[in-house]
Amino acid sequence: MSVVISVNGKEELLSAVTVAELLAARGIVRAKGVAVAVNGAVVPAGSWEHSRLASGDQVEIVKPFGGG
Amino acid sequence: MAPDTTRNVKSDALVIAGRGFTSRLLMGSGGYPNQQVLLDSLKAAEPALVTVALRRISLEAYADSLVDLLDGFVLLPNTAGCATVRDAVLTAQLGREALATNWVKLELIGDRETLYPDVEQLLRATEELVKDGFVVLPYCTDDPVICRKLADAGAAAVMPLGSPIGTGLGIINPYAIERICVTSPVPVILDAGIGTASDAAQAMELGCDGVLLNTAVAKARDPSRMAAAMRGAVLAGRDARLAGRIPKRTLAEPSSPQLGLVGG
């Protein structure tokens, strides 16, 4: 059975075990300016390493953009 | 003597939630032609705070961070575009994590065409975020009643609109803004609708404690020049407010002596 998560609104097969691995796969290793929420709750950068992902998780990865 | 050397900045600081700012101009960072123009404009404006939005990163390409570009400016994350309390609260929490600040410009949009705030949800989100330890600066309608309710709910400042976001229509209800300034127990920041320098000066003359603007500079033909104009306008408007304008009269009153006229 395949394990699917949603990342920024897009479904994908889960290949990462932790939030840190999910970010690293996208070239994000530096925490500065990046914030992550899983299922509506912020996961602080200090917890990325041991925060495990599970099937059905809704992940949001954001950063600052220009805005008013 | 240059005006800036006579100005006692320390005694006229903008104070929000116990934090003092030497500038009364707040700037947005959206919609600039490019990052260099944004940077040049912010340098010319010397803003107290610079607002930024939180958005999903592009999953394909991780571009450089705006945080590095705006190093040295105090950033204020916003909840722009949020239409529910839940989304606004989560966006505020993400902004706190991303920028290591508990300050937030709270936006809760109730209508897509005018971008008017949904004040009912705005109040609830303000209460929730204040409880969560945030310094909340809500973008709200130009209504003295909702501004008072927001202050009662713990907002650190209120930010009534001059006119809808991005319109450049200026302050369409000066009476309401003036009433808010008279009655608000917290600082009043005029937010949205500024079109040109005189609008910013007018906001300060009406009694606002500060002005937040974005499009008027970002979309000007020469953004950094307009940014400098806005900086000057906020200073001029503040000085005029403190100096006290003369009462308006319906008939002329001569400035020159009435006696000793030639041929009299």
Descriptive overview:
- The complex is a heterodimer of chains A (68) and B (264).
- Chain A is mainly beta and 68 residues long.
- Chain A is 9% helix and 35% strand.
- Chain A has a single domain, classed as Ubiquitin-like (UB roll) (Roll), CATH 3.10.20.
- Chain A has a five-stranded mixed beta sheet with strand order 2-1-5-3-4, with no helix packed on it.
- Chain A is globular, with a radius of gyration of 12 Å.
- Chain B has 264 residues and is an alpha/beta fold.
- Chain B has one domain: Aldolase class I (TIM Barrel).
- Chain B has ten helices and ten strands.
- In chain B, helix 6 links the parallel strand 7 and strand 8.
- In chain B, helix 2 packs parallel to helix 10.
- Chain B starts with a helix and ends in a 21-residue tail after the last helix.
- Classes of the chains: A mainly beta (68), B alpha/beta (264).
- Chains A and B meet through strand 3 and strand 5 of A and strand 4, helix 3 and helix 4 of B.
- Strand 5 of chain A pairs antiparallel with strand 4 of chain B.
Largest interface: chains, residues each: A-B, 26 and 38 residues
Helix segment tally of chain B: 10
What share of residues are in beta strands of chain A? Answer: 35-45%
Gap from first CA to last CA of chain B:
40 Å
Helix percentage range of chain A = under 10%
The 3D shape of chain A can be described as: globular
CATH architecture of chain B: Alpha-Beta Barrel
Distance between the termini of chain A: 45 Å
CATH class of chain A: Alpha Beta
Indicate the CATH topology of chain B. Answer: TIM Barrel
Structural domain count of chain B: 1
Low-confidence segments of chain B: none
Supply the number of structural domains of chain A: 1
Record the strand order, biggest sheet of chain A: 2-1-5-3-4
Low-confidence parts of chain A = none
Assembly status = heterodimer
Characterize the biggest β-sheet of chain B. 5 strands, parallel
